[in-house]
Design brief:
300 residues; alpha+beta; 5-stranded antiparallel beta sheet; 5-stranded mixed beta sheet; 22% strand; globular
């Protein structure tokens, strides 16, 4: 990832083949290459998941929240000789590393196992978590049990992103298959809970076409509201008001199957409304034996 922006700090046992490739010298038993790069990334995103700032990943000095640096590895071996590549991600100092997401700095990790999933909530010392770790993990494990769309990852990692010194460009961000971060002051008891929205993304493993691209954010927004209702973190009237946003202008001329018509984050707003109406229609047509979950499970 972003290897084009990296600089080589040191190397031992690797010769430079060209500007972006290093080759093992064939002799050094434990060769190394050390890279240095700037992890800061920004966004101009708008909509329900947007925030007032710009950052999606950042080095704040005393701490950092960043994507894992990834390189491409190619190798050959004598015929018949077994080979394998092991990728391990760990921090050199205080911090927590997932598969794709890394927090650098002092932090504690609170874990819970339920429904075949192990949830790891990373609470940095620099964060001021609005909800208790117990409440966050309770909401996530309840969502895990309630959302019947298959594709439960064995481990889910969530990071409470510190907000004291950083103006984030989004309220939360799913990254990789089963990891996400959420701003530390985000609430749980709301029909647009970012904690639940980003968790739903970890359960989505379907490919989309141009016509079905809206399903990614539309179903995440819809199920975040439904899961909040199921967990008694909101009421039906609040969910109804949240979904009704998709009925208003400027969404009247939006065709979800045509992204060129999307305006004001229609895939979130009108997408959530459409997901809800499809769910209602399926329940009505099947005497409540069929739901949108069945369709998403097949997609997954």
């Amino acid at each position: 990832r972003r290897t084009e922006n990296a600089t080589v700090a040191s190397r031992d046992g690797f010769d430079r083949a060209n500007a972006t490739t290093f080759e093992w010298d064939g002799e050094t038993a434990r060769p190394t290459v050390t890279f240095r790069y700037n992890p800061n990334e920004t966004t101009t995103r708008t909509g329900p998941e947007a925030a007032d700032g710009r950052y999606t990943f950042v080095d704040a000095g005393e701490w950092a929240l960043l994507p894992a640096f990834r390189t491409r590895t190619v190798w050959t071996a004598p015929r018949g000789e077994p080979t394998r590549v092991e990728r391990r991600l760990r921090t050199a100092g205080p911090g927590v590393a997932g598969e794709r997401l890394v927090y650098l700095g002092p932090a504690r990790t609170v874990s819970r196992t339920a429904n075949g999933q192990r949830f790891r909530l990373v609470v940095p010392d620099a964060a001021s978590l609005r909800e208790s770790p117990t409440a966050v993990l309770g909401a996530l494990t309840n969502a895990s049990a309630s959302l019947d769309i298959g594709d439960r990852d064995r481990t889910v990692m969530a990071v409470a992103a510190p907000t004291g010194r950083v103006e984030w460009g989004v309220r939360g961000l799913a990254y990789g298959d089963s990891e996400f971060w959420v701003r530390d002051f985000e609430p749980l008891n709301t029909p647009d809970s970012v904690w639940l929205h980003e968790y739903v993304h970890t359960r989505q493993d379907f490919a989309t076409t141009r016509e079905t691209r809206w399903l990614t954010e539309g179903t995440a927004q819809y199920y975040a509201a439904l899961l909040a209702l199921d967990g008694n973190r909101t009421d039906f009237e609040a969910v109804r008001r949240e979904l009704a946003i998709g009925e208003r202008e400027p969404y009247g001329d939006v065709v979800l199957g045509d992204p060129a018509t999307w305006t004001a984050n229609a895939n979130y707003r009108k997408g959530a409304l459409a997901a809800g109406r499809i769910d209602v229609s399926l329940r009505a047509a099947t005497n409540r034996s069929g739901t949108l979950e069945d369709a998403i499970r097949r997609l997954n």
